[in-house]
Task: structure prediction
Amino acid sequence: MRITRTAAGRRRRAALVATTGLTAAALLLTGCSDSDSSDDTGSDANGQITLTVADFGQFGYKEAGLFAKYHELHPNITVKENATADEKVYYPKFLQQLNTGSGLADVQGIEVGRVKELVDTKADAFADLSEVIDTDQWVNWKALQATTDEGKVIGAGTDIGPMSLCYRRDLFEQAGLPTDRAEVAKKVAGGWEDYLKLGEEYNKKAPKGTFFMDSASAMYNGVVSSNEEQYYSKDGKAIYKESAGVKKGWGLATEAVDKKLTQGLAQFSPPWQAALRKGSIASMACPAWMAAQISTYSGDAFKGKWDIALTPGTTAANWGGSFLSVPAKGKHVKEAGELVKWLTAPEQQAAVFKAAGLFPSNKGAYDLPDVKNAKLEYFNNAPIGAIYAEEANSIPAAVLGPKDGIIKDSISTQINNMEQRGTDPDQAWDAATKAIDKVIG
Result:
């Protein structure tokens, strides 16, 4: 099962998206390895080829039936997936395999938080997909993330996580706030500062036992991720201490804590899941994949009470996403490249979105019915296809760094400490920077 999708520990489950708007069910999907890729790679005397795909968590291909469909289209090719539940377990093994040149699958998944490190240090270990795919089909910032300065493309984009705002209509109504998604979007149109102002309004009449947001660290990530420069400069220097986006995100997070706008729950933790079941969270920063988490843990009792509005401000953020790569030393590089091209084409990305709720990075999918007309019944029939597509097109081309995940993790941990332990903001920032500098030098 896809338990994590980012180096920062993001978790998600699959959401089944109905384009008619009549149904939407969140599923806990068990994804296990079909077999060990090292046992199956190769071809037999009859020209039958087995292509292995190594990934982590859930990419949605089996749920959408794409491996079986590819075999129908190419009877001589069988695709077998080797999925690791936790990306933090997957990546070190992947690095070791790249270093030794052995044990690699024909196709390997790459998490967005890792791609910059691989682009900078391991590009020679991958086939150049610019010769296979048309990168203009992808949202421009997604393609750039996997492209070297020389123009080599080491990964084809799979999903992305455009940010929106998820909120409880019933709790907003009880607190005297607007409930219509367009009106909510207007209230936060000025940015995340407006979101905090909305939180102050909420607190004046907040239903007992409820909190405006789940986590200041989640909001922080939304703030930072809407900036082009985040933790690194374009020349590769770590600038998180001077970054305008980080400063703004940290300042708003400390303000949210000080004004008691947050329940102080680390996302995806058991207490966070319990809070969703109880119904104590009124809103949260909400990348595309978060809807499945909310519907899964909130359950039937809150069906139709949640809704989705556009993200605060005019610039959207991206949280998460992955790539498919082809190791240069693979046994079937040409065939693997063709599989990657097919899996990341608009039709297949739309199928994955419908089956597993993973939003496409290929722009061609946005006009297909399974994306364009997609609605979530659980979220008051929110038109998620249109919402996420609009957000995706306003996301800046962020500068990525090799240790983005570590920096984000360290800062988020200290925001949680301010929420949960009452740690002084200055002490929390000092602890975060010391932890980061110890790792990145």
Observations:
- Confidence is low (pLDDT under 50) at residues 1-41.
